[in-house]
Design goal:
This protein is mostly beta strands and 145 residues long. Helix content is 9%, strand content 43%.
Length: 145
């Protein structure tokens, strides 16, 4: 009986490497990212608080989730998302860009969001890009106005 228990414990502890020295267990499936939401979702001005939320699942566990934000002036920022519950991840940050560096074509004044999730085996999922229009504030008034 003792030998059976020892063999069972050995196999259980060796599972990530393959029971009894066999081939390593490999997970080739990337995590799933669903219900991706950006708030505000239609117009963001520089200085606005932005929240990105997503449901991320993987049967072997999630190592990290991040959102890459590309501002209309070309700046890129990667923000780590934190677990907010079972499978819900979130990041809140202040959108910041240089309004003097915006492209001349106002149609390209968008903020691009891409979420990347990596599971415990290194499999990666990259979401489709979500775009939100960027707004500019009113011009600064001269001090003697």
């Amino acid at each position: 009986m003792r030998q059976i228990v020892v063999a069972f414990v050995f196999c259980a502890l060796s599972l990530p490497l393959g029971c009894a020295g066999g081939d390593a267990v490999r997970d080739n499936q990337p995590p799933r990212v669903e219900n991706l939401q950006i708030q505000p979702s239609n117009l963001i001005a520089s200085g606005t608080q932005v929240t990105v939320q997503a449901t991320v699942t993987d049967d072997r566990g999630i190592r990290e989730v991040s959102v890459e934000v590309t501002y209309p002036d070309g700046q890129e920022r990667i923000i780590m998302m934190t677990r907010q519950g079972d499978n819900r991840f979130s990041a809140t940050f202040s959108a910041q860009w240089n309004e003097r560096m915006l492209p001349q074509d106002y149609e390209s004044w968008v903020i691009r969001f891409v979420v990347t999730a990596i599971d415990n085996f290194g499999n990666r999922f990259v979401s489709d890009e979500i775009r939100v229009r960027a707004a500019i504030g009113p011009p600064e008034l001269p001090p003697d106005f």
